[in-house]
């Protein structure tokens, strides 16, 4: 893992310029600057709601109304959030031909709102509701009213089409994400604590397939020493914005597009 002495941002820009086919893997940290709390850490959502009580499929089947207390808060907060400079920067890097896909663990839809076109929603999204009995799908904005628990036409309680603990990753998303990790030249890992599998396995898959792994996070994670080739301590909006600038206006050693 490089960082420290040389400027890790310039090192990352050089890797992005030299190796085509970068892919981004994002976590809740990229949306913190949009006002959406992360899950872990000081102000994390799991500090307020015990995930074993509020974020497992078992909890939802046992007490859907209780789980909907947490879900309502997530939907409301995400509904008022806008993309920040990091989301915009990844969209710009896609338009520049630097980043070819974003794999996101987030369910807030902010990458698409920022203009990213190839987004793999690894944990689903809050825009859809699904019936776990008859599998019917609904648009959240047309079926959910704040403070109420939405019902399917079959009478059962609907669940946002997000992956709760104990649920499998949607197979198309898992297959596409692993293919992107296996074939990318650089994996940009942004704003994830890398504690939840199988998403946290993707950086190792990329590394073992020959990609350079660049980690952007104010705090080091389990990836920093064991997987990351370059660790950039900093916020997503600041670092992604700097990368876009270096790639748009290259100076010796950072290449450019
Ligand atoms: N810029 C970049 N990273 C940040 C910022 C920021 N401004 N602020 C915080 N971070 C980092 C934190 O240091 C932390 O490492 O973002 C990470 C957020 O970690 P988590 O809250 O654990 O979120 P995430 O890694 O996305 O969680 C993965 O766990 O609970 C499940 O399904 C949920 O998708 C989620 C998964």
Quick tags:
257 residues; alpha/beta; Rossmann fold; SIR2/SIRT2 'Small Domain'; six-stranded parallel β-sheet; 9 strands; 38% helix; binds adenosine-5-diphosphoribose
Descriptive notes:
- By secondary structure, the chain is an alpha/beta fold.
- It has two domains: 158 residues, TPP-binding domain (Rossmann fold); 81 residues, 2-Layer Sandwich (SIR2/SIRT2 'Small Domain'), CATH 3.30.1600.10.
- The chain is built from twelve helices and nine strands.
- Strands 3-2-1-7-8-9 form a six-stranded parallel β-sheet, with helices on both faces. A three-stranded antiparallel β-sheet has the order 5-4-6.
- Helix 1 crosses helix 12 and helix 6 runs parallel beside helix 12.
- The chain starts with 7 loop residues before the first helix and ends in a 9-residue tail after the last helix.
- The model has no long low-confidence stretch (mean pLDDT 95).
- The structure holds adenosine-5-diphosphoribose.
- The site of adenosine-5-diphosphoribose has 24 residues, from loops.
Characterize this entry briefly.
The protein has helices at residues 8-18, 45-48, 51-54, 57-62, 64-79, 85-95, 110-113, 140-143, 171-183, 202-208, 222-226, 236-248, and strands spanning 22-26, 99-104, 119-121, 124-130, 137-139, 159-162, 186-190, 212-216, 230-232. With 257 residues, the chain is of the alpha/beta class.
């Amino acid at each position: 893992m490089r960082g420290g002495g040389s400027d890790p941002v310039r090192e990352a820009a050089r890797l992005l310029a030299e190796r085509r086919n970068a892919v981004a893997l994002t976590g809740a940290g990229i949306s913190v600057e949009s006002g959406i709390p992360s899950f872990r850490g000081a102000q994390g959502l799991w500090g307020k709601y015990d995930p074993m009580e509020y974020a497992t499929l078992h909890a939802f089947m046992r007490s859907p109304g209780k789980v909907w207390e947490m879900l309502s808060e997530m939907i409301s907060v995400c509904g008022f959030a806008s993309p920040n400079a990091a989301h915009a920067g990844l969209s710009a890097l896609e338009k520049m031909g630097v980043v070819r896909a974003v794999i996101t663990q987030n369910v807030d839809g902010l990458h698409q709102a920022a203009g990213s076109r190839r987004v793999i929603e690894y944990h689903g999204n809050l825009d859809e509701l699904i019936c776990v009995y008859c599998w019917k799908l609904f648009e959240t904005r047309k079926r959910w009213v704040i403070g109420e628990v939405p019902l399917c036409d079959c009478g059962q309680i609907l669940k946002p089409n997000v992956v709760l603990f104990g649920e499998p990753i949607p197979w198309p998303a898992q297959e596409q994400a692993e293919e992107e990790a296996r074939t990318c030249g650089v994996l940009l890992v942004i704003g994830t604590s890398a504690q939840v599998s199988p998403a946290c396995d993707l950086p190792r898959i990329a590394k073992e397939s020959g990609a350079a792994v660049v980690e952007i996070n104010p705090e080091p994670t389990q990836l920093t020493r064991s997987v990351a080739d370059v660790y950039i301590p900093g916020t997503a909006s600041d670092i992604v914005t700097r990368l876009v600038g270096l790639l748009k206006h290259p100076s010796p050693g950072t290449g450019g597009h």
